[in-house]
Write a structure and sequence with these properties.
This protein is an alpha+beta fold. 40% of the residues lie in helices and 28% in strands. The longest helix is centred in the C-terminal third of the chain and has 27 residues.
């Protein structure tokens, strides 16, 4: 079996192709999206209360990106009707350990006068002092602008929950204004519910609010949303898919759910290929989408990898010189092999691993350890299903010499042998049908071929080995003129194989270790008489079988008491144990699975006696014999009639006298 190959060079180019679709976590130093926080009392608010709060965010977009203009309006009330009160209010710099950046905050009164920050305190970006006369209401506005970000998605969050530091609010209002009308499909997240939306403005209104909640929006940037609508209207599926891919990348990088993006991207790419099947760039993008989807899902991971491989194979067939496509196809098959192995399909893993190494247009670098690990898992899986021989037959190409020797040293060469022996007037023929033990099929064939060559060197012996429909067949012919010549040539055959006796040679010599006592055909006027008598002894084969099968028993006991050092050793030991158990069963069942049929014929005799055959079982020593007369009725009947007539005539003459 050809070894599988895994490409390991030029991967930086391939990773560039697929990186933008991979789910990557945000880095530690990544800038956080805009976050709005309210003004809070630096110390106890005393008699000053926050009566109402209004937040208005106005979104504006251009070619650079979308900026958020923020105005926070506060109405404070000094509930002390007798004394003036001062209070420090500040803008917090952290929320739940997240750093808050408010660019150039400016606090103004209703006349537009700027109120300068008065001091700095730990935990606050800026602090202002608020002075209120008895029972005075004062309105202040905090203004700033979040600079534009070149993103396809807009994120906004208002940490309104921090307002609980002021106690119950008589009224609160939140508005988020868009630069143009948008439909519901532009919004990925809107919290909390309920809210009002008129196409351009989201509005939340509250009265007597004591447990304010955070507010947030995630939407497709209006200019991006407008471009999507334009591409949909024009039917430009490929550019539409690319734009959705960019949005998908943006969402993944920021950890934003973008439901339905995969289906939409795949649908647009497929539609693009239906319009223009020669658009290999679209096909490559589709393959990359399938690969990314495989990384993002667990239950259908293998399915998507195979879909990606299908697209890449079609591209590679049209671009055989494109090393990057070939490398990505090889990698996809390798990933499929890994997933198949991890999900309990080692046979599939081997098939995909083989395909990974057979991708044309690349110079593969073998990864024997990876292939060996997959092969070992697959073999162990088959062995646990009772198919250890099939597993070893596939595994031998990657087995170490030590492991191979451990698994096959005492293996039976065959699972059964059927032997047919026929004795005729001029020759004796033995035909053997061997069923090799699958992992040793090649060795068994080579051994039988060598034995056939060795037998052909024996005088008067003709041996031919050939492949039958499923198994090797060995045929041996020994011509003879006398019984003594047959006995001598049979003895020479046995002696030729006796110097290096194993199970195969023992099977071959078994039917030739006989003693032919009688084999005659007597032809007389009124009858023929066929006589056959032969002493059969198959016990020498049983002795060889007992000796060689005993090694397998010892090996099985040794494996059962061995201790594995690591996981790989444990797998190898488990495989060896299951293999030895199967081999032990084959050794034990070999006698019952093998048989001998002895037949006798008498050449071109006018009347050949039927049914001259015997079935001989394993290890039997018995005498085969028959005395079979064949009467010549065509002669006997007329002679009998003549005799009867003569008797009748004689009787008549006597009566007349």
């Amino acid at each position: 079996m050809r070894k599988s190959a895994i490409l390991r060079k030029n991967w930086s180019l391939v990773l560039v192709l697929v990186f933008f679709l991979c789910c990557v976590p945000a880095s530690a130093d990544e800038q956080h999206p805009p976050l709005d926080v309210p003004l809070l009392p630096v110390d106890a608010s005393g008699s000053i209360q926050l009566a109402a709060c209004t937040l208005v965010v106005t979104l504006s977009c251009d070619d650079v990106g979308c900026a958020q203009k923020v105005q926070q309006t506060y109405q404070f009330h000094n509930t002390d009707r007798a004394r003036a009160t001062a209070l420090l209010i500040g803008l917090p710099e952290k929320v739940d350990a997240q750093l808050v950046t408010i660019p150039d905050p400016m606090l103004t009164d209703v006349q537009g006068q700027i109120i300068e920050s008065s001091s700095i305190a730990a935990g606050y970006q800026a602090i202002w002092q608020l002075n209120l006369d008895p029972n005075e209401y004062r309105t202040l506005t905090l203004s700033y602008v979040h600079p534009p970000t070149p993103q396809h998605l807009v994120r906004w969050r208002w940490e309104m929950s921090l307002l609980s530091a002021w106690g119950t609010l008589e009224g609160a209002r939140v508005e988020f204004k868009l630069p143009q009308n948008l439909t519901d499909d532009a919004f990925l997240q809107t919290e909390p519910y309920p809210f009002r939306f008129d196409g351009t403005t989201f509005t939340w209104e509250y009265e007597n609010l004591d447990t304010p909640l955070p507010h947030s929006l995630i939407l497709i940037a209006p200019n991006t949303w407008q471009r999507l609508r334009e591409l949909e209207a024009s039917g430009d599926h490929y550019d539409l898919a690319l734009l959705y891919l960019d949005i998908h990348k943006n969402a993944q990088n920021e950890g934003i759910p973008f439901p339905g993006s995969f289906d939409r991207i795949a649908a647009e790419l497929e539609a693009s290929l239906q319009v223009d099947p020669t658009n290999l760039n679209a096909q490559l993008e589709l393959a990359q989408v399938y690969r990314a989807r495989a990384e993002a899902t667990s239950d259908l991971q293998l399915n998507y990898l195979l879909l990606a491989a299908q697209e890449l194979a079609q591209i590679q067939a049209q671009r055989p010189e494109d090393v990057q496509v070939a490398a990505l196809l090889s990698r996809t098959y390798y990933d499929a092999a890994t997933i198949a192995s991890e999900t309990g399909d080692p046979a599939g893993a081997l098939a995909y691993l083989k395909k990974a190494g057979e991708v044309p247009g690349i110079e593969p670098e073998l990864d024997p350890q990876t292939e060996r690990d997959l092969m070992l898992r697959w073999a162990l899986s088959l062995a646990e299903q009772g198919m250890a021989s099939q597993a070893l037959a596939e595994l031998r190409d990657v087995l170490s010499s030590e492991m191979e020797d451990s698994l096959l040293r005492y293996a039976p060469p065959v699972t059964s042998v059927q032997t047919e022996v026929e004795l005729g007037p001029e020759e004796r023929v033995a035909r053997y049908t061997f069923s090799p033990y699958l992992p040793l099929f090649e060795e068994t064939w080579i051994r039988l071929s060598d034995l056939a060559i060795q037998l052909n060197s024996v005088e008067g012996c003709q041996a031919v080995v050939q492949m039958g429909p499923d198994s090797p067949i060995l045929e041996i012919r020994i011509p003879y003129k006398t019984k003594s010549e047959l006995a001598q040539r049979s003895s020479d055959l046995v002696a030729a194989l006796d110097t290096n006796m194993d199970m195969l040679s023992a099977f071959i010599t078994a039917p030739w270790q006989t003693e032919l006592l009688a084999y005659t055909a007597e032809h007389k006027f009124l009858h023929d008489r066929y006589v056959y008598e032969e002493q059969i002894d198959l016990t020498p084969l049983e002795i060889i079988w007992e000796e060689q099968s005993q090694y397998s028993r010892w090996r099985l006991i040794e494996l059962q008491s061995a201790l594995a050092q690591n996981e790989e050793d444990q797998s190898e030991q488990r495989l060896a144990l299951l293999t030895q158990r199967e081999q032990r069963q084959i050794w034990d069942s070999l006698p019952a699975a093998s048989y001998w049929i002895f037949r006798v014929n008498y050449g071109d005799a006018l009347q050949v006696p039927p049914g001259l055959s015997w079935l001989v079982g394993w290890g039997q020593a018995r005498q085969l014999q028959i005395v079979y007369p064949v009467y010549h009725w065509p002669v006997i009947i007329p002679l009998s009639l003549v005799g009867v007539l003569m008797l009748f005539a004689t009787f008549r003459l006597l009566i007349r006298r």
